[in-house]
Write a structure and sequence with these properties.
Elements: E1 2-6, E2 10-16, E3 41-47, H1 49-59, E4 64-71, H2 75-83, E5 87-94, E6 100-106, E7 112-117, E8 136-141, H3 146-158, E9 163-165, H4 176-183, E10 188-192, H5 193-203, H6 207-210, E11 216-220, E12 226-230, E13 233-237, H7 251-264, H8 269-284, H9 296-307, H10 313-316, H11 321-324
Parallel strand pairs: 1-4, 1-8, 2-6, 4-5, 8-9, 9-10, 10-11
Antiparallel strand pairs: 2-3, 6-7, 11-12, 12-13
Length: 325
């Protein structure tokens, strides 16, 4: 069995601005913003939330499977994921299409401005849970073509399959009804602090109201850690201090995958949150969303340094994909 990672498989153009966006935005001129930023660094990287989730699952030794549509240009990307042990039977490459592409600029404070071209991702609604050979243990519904997101939510609900609802970059395109549909019955509703606030404002629900929809609401807050609010109680999770802050792009996706894997292995919310926090820290220390790496012994040592305790044995003994098939 595996965690199904859905969303985009994309290429990211990552630009770094050695300044602060806030220094260039005049509050009384927000109705007519016209800005350009001279960036100091520019790189093309593999990305997309589905691949980001699956990559962290692979690093942690947990079976993952990608369910997504990509373009003809992603054949090499698919082969690379397969070499890592990711199940790519649900990654469909569409003739005549280009893969989704993200354009990101990050400032010195880690603030980000994204632009997206949907490409082949816009056809993702043609895929459902039966389009992967992997047997699902849980599903992460990441930002994707909205019709694809809600097809998977509905299928998960019908099959009593635990799902994580992570609307993220699609929030501008989702109504209050959409958000309630995605969160109602979800195992986890997750977003960063800005996204969680936006969900609350759009649905008219406070935290208690969101917990009437989803079993757990998780809010990530960058260097300030994360907050896990479950119906039975709340947990504040500290951040794992990075050795160097290079680029935060993709850190949230690693957090999500680390949290899901840890919980499925039986860890409590606080331990799972710490694993997720450290998984995201590795991303912050590198450029690109899936250009970092670690072994489980290395991860265990960093966990000990960050939190002053041993990495739970359940994680170091994570079952292989073959063992869970």
């Amino acid at each position: 069995m595996a965690v199904i990672a859905s969303g985009s498989v994309a290429f990211d153009y990552i630009m770094t601005f050695d300044g602060r966006f806030g220094d260039h935005i005049m509050p009384d001129r927000k109705h007519m913003i016209n800005l350009s930023f001279l960036v100091e660094r520019f790189e093309k990287r593999r990305g997309g939330v589905a691949a980001n989730y699956a990559y962290t699952l692979a690093l942690l030794g947990y079976p993952g499977a990608v369910l997504a549509t990509a373009g003809e240009d992603a054949a090499g990307y698919r082969d690379w994921l397969a070499e890592l042990g990711v199940d790519v039977s649900g990654l469909r490459l569409l003739d005549g299409w280009t893969s989704a592409t993200g354009f990101n600029t990050t400032d010195l404070d880690g603030n980000q401005i994204w632009g997206y071209y949907g490409g082949a991702m816009l056809e993702a609604a043609q895929l459902g849970l039966d389009d992967t050979e992997a047997r699902p243990e849980a599903l992460i519904v990441g930002p994707n073509a909205p019709a694809a997101m809600f097809r998977l939510v509905d299928e998960a609900r019908e099959r009593n399959l635990p799902w994580v609802f992570d609307p993220a970059h699609q929030l501008p395109h989702l109504s209050a009804d959409d958000l309630e549909r995605g969160a109602r019955g979800a195992w986890i509703l997750i977003g960063n602090d800005y996204e969680t606030q936006l969900v609350q404002e759009r649905t008219g629900r406070d935290l208690k109201g969101l917990l009437e929809l989803a079993e757990v609401v998780v809010t990530t807050m960058g260097k300030d850690g994360s907050q896990i609010d479950a119906r039975e109680g709340s947990h504040r999770i500290p951040a794992a201090a990075p050795r160097e802050v290079v680029d935060p792009t993709g850190a949230g996706d690693a957090y999500r995958a680390g949290l899901v894997a840890s919980r499925l292995l039986g860890l409590g919310w606080e331990e799972a949150g710490r694993v997720a926090s450290l998984a995201s820290t590795y991303v912050v220390e590198q450029r690109g969303t899936i250009d970092h790496s670690y072994t489980l012994p290395e991860f265990a040592e960093r966990y000990r340094q960050a939190f002053g305790s041993e990495l739970p044995a359940a994680l170091t003994a994570a079952p292989s994909a073959d063992a869970r098939a």
